[in-house]
Amino acid sequence: MFVGNFAGALTVVVITAVIFPPFTMDPNEIGQKIDHIGENRPLGYAAHGAAGMLTLFLRGVLCNGMVSTGVVAAMMSMSVSGQVIAMRMPILVFFYRASSTPS
Fold it and tell me: Hey, which of 13, 29, 78, 86 would disulfide with 73, CB 3.0 to 4.6 Å?
């Protein structure tokens, strides 16, 4: 599973580097907004030190597991409506967990 995730991440990096060539020009307005996505996301966890960073990592792993569960559940169904219903709950749980921040 690690090799597949790593290969997928590497593919995204290559595609992104082709679409947004690094270090060739200053980013335009859209590029600057893309550059700042997620900068403040881990700050709430960083305030908790190593335990916060471990929590962030484990939540990422669990969110990936929820998405994988949704894919497997959808593959088990024979109808399109069953596939949509089967993958909906794990994906919703993923978005719920990914969007919450620590207090």
Answer: 86
